[in-house]
Amino acid sequence: EVYFKNLSKRKQKEIMEKNGNNHKLRVCVATCNRADYSKLAPIMFGIKAEPQFFELDVVVLGSHLIDDYGNTYRMIEQDDFDIHTRLHTIVRGEDEAAMVESVGLALVKLPDVLNRLKPDIMIVHGDRFDALALATSAALMNIRILHIEGGEVSGTIDDSIRHAITKLAHYHVCCTRSAEQHLIAMCEDHDRILLAGCPSYDKLLSAKNKDYMSIIRMWLGEDVITRDYIVALQHPVTTDIKHSIKMFELTLDALISFNKRTLVLFPNVDAGHKEMVRVMRKKGIEHHPNFRAVKHVPFDQFIQLVAHAGCMIGNSSCGVREVGAFGTPVINLGTRQTGRETGENVLHVRDADTQDKILHALQLQFGKQYPCSKIYGDGNAVPRILKFLKSIDLKEPLQKKFCFPPVKDNISQDIDHILETQSALAVDLGGTNLRVAIVSMKGEIVKKYTQLNPKTYEDRLELILKMCVEAASEAVNVNCRILGVGISTGGRVNPREGIVLHSTKLIQEWSSVDLRTPISDALHLPVWVDNDGNCAALAERKFGHGKGIENFVTLITGTGIGGGIVHQHELIHGSSFCAAELGHIVVSLDGPECLCGSQGCIEAYASGIALQREAKKLHDEDLLLVEGMSMKKEEVISAAHLIQAAKLGNAKADSILRTAGTALGLGVVNILHTVNPSLVILSGVLASHYVNAVKDVINRQALSSVKTVDVVVSNLADPALLGAASLVLDYTTRRIY
Q1: Is 504 among the annotated ligand-binding positions?
Q2: Domains within the chain, CATH numbers bracketed
Q3: Is 36 a catalytic residue?
Q4: How far is CA 397 from CA 119, 143, 393, 401, in A?
């Protein structure tokens, strides 16, 4: 323990030396209202207790300085903090415009204050409009910002403000694991996120055993006992002010009917607060014998009141956050806290549209005692935050860096909301079949259509359009949103223009064909086109063995031999779009003739067509069939018969396959010596038959420096369609440029 303490001191000393000898971190804490001060005060006490490391400046603004809200700046003075600056920033008003004007007024006044203070870092809390003005001013004046309680989710405009402050802030202190994940998903740097817990919990978890009866009697009367009163705290919902006022009226009616002593706190300063106060006065709450209406309760006393209440009701974040630490029953009304993590002590009444519904909730909750919840903290947030502050290196660049992690899909639990699956239309033009599929972001083939590939250009293009239109219509029924069309085709392709320059002999009338324009015009979607070998490599990069690999090669072993090369995470097309024609690497000067017109190509030895040719030769000489094989008279000889014969002991068939495997292996060795990938992926129907032969040739023929390469068989069922889909998904979602 002593060792780690000394180690911690040495690290802190190193950071101070890095920041400048004996330089104290000048911290500005700006507090806007009673709620944020309850979270900031523990941090302020911690900073004040370590003057050797920190200088503290306190700025007070917002509703702290308004008499209607109890002039709560006085409690900051009572806590013995020197207030450096008081800024009157609240513009009185009834509507949303008053909040906007208040933000504007704060923006006008804050620059002068920050210029005088010149803090190293400003601590901003939460999601109030005042806090947005603070964060905006500090960010524009190149002052580092530490944001408390970012990453949380709730209702109303607060959500948008909280996330806006997150994007302005340089450092983040969050309270829950979910909030931390939200910040990471929002592209914030994980190294600048601290999961500390809520600072107010440092007080909460040590407060319950203190003398509380005198506090309860002071606020609610001498005759009140524990668990026999209610605390009510309800604020306007700025995105639906009229509805929130109506809900407040129903809440007061229910509380009057419930007939229990109730402490009602005035709402916050958001638009609609004056109307809520008028509702209180209209119903005579301030003079009702069962009610005590107050503008403000000091946080230490408020803790005791909610800890020993029979129930808390309203829509304050305090109800779903802090009160859980005591197991006090809570009734959360409306949508203001939608999305907050809560303990089992919270009963949600989302649509509190009748007095009876709220009254029933009170009958269910009042007087219960739930297990204490520590979702938002364990009582040790402040020490973690102080350590985090000490670790900040002021010599690091001020400019934020954003990270882009994969975002976990969020499946909505609201039955009225349908989450569409982002998908692509994938088209595969093969020598025999034309296939169209709906492919999801995860590589799932949701729906697939197959037709024979027509022999003429006109018929082929007409069928492509017909199948794509049919698939796009079906996508709506299977809840998929089509982002674009990706096309995989044989031959040489200009992917920039979406043109097939010339094709293989397997696909007739398929040269100088513009595929992008007619399909894009018909479907009103972006269209990408590439060679089938390149698409196979793209499929591996996104969904297969190539995921995360910087340099790899994919070889397709099917009717022909093709492939794609990925170098430094990018697909290589070459200067005339002829790169990675791997099937036409020459491995013998006097080998068999290839369809390309040359001799000795890999494709002339190892393709399905080449094996079929050799199988026919053996069959014509009555050397193919062996015991255990049978063929129908009309059956067409294929590569499959050659493989079957080899497995059943046909020496000549086995020799042909070994020669084919050797030719493919020599081609792979040439690839290794040329582009030096770390991985070779064999794809297609013949891959499993060739993999061992390829590895043997590499061990015999390759330079020692490349023999460590991994050679694997693809695990993708349909690389052509998946590769065509990845053309769309990679670009339209801006993962890869």
Answers
A1: yes
A2: 23-204+380-391 (3.40.50.2000), 208-365 (3.40.50.2000), 415-543 (3.30.420.40), 545-715 (3.30.420.40)
A3: no
A4: 16, 12, 9, 10
